[in-house]
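Schema walkthrough. Field components (list of strings):
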Amino acid sequence: MADRYLHFTGTAPGRFLTRRLGLPQPAPLRRWSLETPRLEGPLLHLTAGADTEAVAGLAEVLAGAGLPVVGRADRPGAVVLDATGVTTAAGLGDVHAALHPVVRSLAPGGRVVVLGTVPSPDDHHQAAAQQALEGFVRSLGKEIGRGSTVQLVRLPDVRVPGVPASDVRLPGGGATAQGAASTLRFLLSPRSAYVSGQVIELTDATPEPVTDPAAPLAGRTALVTGAARGIGAAVASVLARDGARVIALDVPGVREELERTAARLGATPLPLDITAPDAADRIAAAAPDGLGVLVHNAGITRDRRLANMPAERWTSVVDVNLDSVLRTTDELLKAGTIRRGGRIVATASIAGIAGNNGQTNYAASKAGIIGLVRSLGPRAAADHGVTVNAVAPGFIETKMTAAVPFFIREAGRRMNSLAQGGLPVDVAEAVAWFAQPDSTAVNGQVLRVCGQSLLGA
Ligand code: NAD
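Field assembly_structure (string):
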C-alpha cells in the first residue's frame, strides 16, 4: 500500500507544512538496485583509543565492503568505528571524540557501524564499557535522521577465557574480524536500508568462501514457504537474484498466485500446506539434491483478545507460525535434506518481542521462533554445519498490514526512527544476508527489520 505521507513530505509544500506542524519527516530510503549498488561517499574507518591497534583482519574485511576506505572524509557515506579496544568507562570518551566531529557530515542515507566485543563475564569494567556501546548505538540511531542507520557488531573475542581484558592488551581487545565480511557488506550497503539500532553478535566460525560475488548462492537450492505474495515472494525474488534455484511453497488455495510468482522468478512452485503431516517428506521429494537454504516465512494472524479467543484461533496460529517450523526443521535436519553449510532462516516479528493487544497467539508463536533460533543455532552448527537465524519484521507494507485499521496503521508506520514502514524487499535482503555462504559466523541471531521501531525497543 502506498505511503502517501512519505510522498507528500518529499514535496516542497509538504516539507514546509509538516515542519511547521512538527510532524515526522521521513527521508526516502535508498535501497539496493543495479543502478545504486553502493552508498554515496567513502567509508571512514576510525578507531576509538589512540593506542589501540586494529582488530585482526579488519582492514581486509573493510576493503571488501565495496567502498573506498579513508582515514578522513568531508562527506563519508559510512563510518566504521572500531571500539573493540574500549575496556574502561574513561575509554568511552574516545567513542565520543571519534564520532562527535563526523556525525553531522555523514551523507544522507549513511551508515554508522560500531564494532565491539562481547561483554566479558570475567571483567566487569570491560563488560560495562562494551555494554555501554549498545545504549550509545540505540540512542544515536534515534537521533541521526536523514535516513541514516546505526548498528553495533560484536566481534568474537579470541582471548584465552578467564583472562581479564585489562591484563592482556591484545590488539583490538583480542577480537577478530575474520567472520565479519558478509555482515559488514550488508550493513554498509543500501541493502540494509530499513535496519537500524541493532546489535549483531558474531561467532568465531570460519566463513565459507564466496566463489562468485555476483551470484553468491549459485549451485544452492532455496525453499521459501508462504512465497506466493508479500514478504515471501520478495525473499524468493532476492534469493533468485543471488543465484539460488528457488522452490516457492504456498497453500494449494493460492495455487494460481503461486504459479504466477514462481513463473516470474524462474522458480519451481510447490503447492503444499506447511502444516500437513507429510510436509517435510514432500519438501525433501521436491529437492532431491537437498537444500542449501530453508526460509520459514509462512505466517498467519487470527487476532482476538485472550478472553474472546476460541481455541481454534490459538491452535491454527501456533500450528502455522511455530509448530510446523519446529516439525519440518527437525525432520529435514534429521534426514540430511539441509546440506552442510546450509542456512535456516525463520520469521519472528516485533510482536514476539514487544507483545501486542489482541495477539497473544501470534506473539507467543513469534516469541517461540526466537527461542527456537537461539537454542538450535549452536547445536545445528555443531551437529550439521547449518546456521539458524531469524528476521523479526516491524511494520512492513503488505496485504497483512493493509488490513490494519487506518489510525493503527499510521501509528505503526511512523513509530520508528525512520518514520516509515518497510518494504518486503527490506526483509528479503536481511534473509539473503543470513543465507550468504560466508555468513557462517552469523548464527542464533534475531535481526529486527523495523526501522528501529519504538515497540519493544
Ligand atoms: P502475507 O499474509 O501477505 O503472506 C503470507 C503467506 O503465507 C501467504 O501467501 C499465505 O498463503 C502463506 N501461508 C499461510 N499459511 C500457510 C500454510 N499453512 N502453508 C503454506 N503457506 C501458508 O503475510 P506477510 O506480511 O508477507 O508476512 C510474511 C511473514 O512475515 C509472516 O510470517 C508474518 O507473520 C511475518 N511478519 C509480517 C509483518 C508485516 O508487517 N507484514 C510483520 C512482522 C512479521
